Amino acid sequence: MTKKWLMLLLAMLALAIVASAADISGTWKGTAQTPNGSTERTFNFKVDGNKVTGDTTSDIFGKSTIEDGKIDGDTVTFTLTIEFQGNQGKVNYTGKIKGDDEIDFHVEIPAFNQQVDYVAKRAK
Length: 124
Prior knowledge:
Layout lengths: L2 H19 L4 E9 L2 E12 L2 E8 L3 E4 L1 E6 L2 E10 L2 E12 L3 E8 L4 E9 L2
Antiparallel strand pairs: 1-2, 1-9, 2-3, 3-4, 3-5, 5-6, 6-7, 7-8, 8-9
C-alpha cells in the first residue's frame, strides 16, 4: 500500500471515529437537583455535522429551543432561553459525551446566578 493510500485510509478512519462518537441525535433524559427542587429535562437532539439543533422539555421550565448548538470532539455546547416566574434568562449547557448513552452536563444560569451539574442518558 502506498503512503498516499495509507494516509487517506487513516484520515477516513479518524473521521469515522469522530462522527460516531459525536452522534447524539435522538432523545435523552436527565434529572437535576436545583434550589427549586428536582427537575427533569428531555432533550431531542438533531445533529448535522458539528451543528446541534432540536428542543428540550422541562417539568419546571416547559419547552425550549436549542440555540447555538455545536459539537467539538466529545463536547457539546448549546444555549436555551427559559422563562420562570415571569423572568426570562439564558441557560448555557456544556456537556461531556461519554460513549453512546451518557452526557455529563454542567449548566450555568447567569440570570438566576445558579449552576447545576447532572447526567443525561439516552432514552431507550
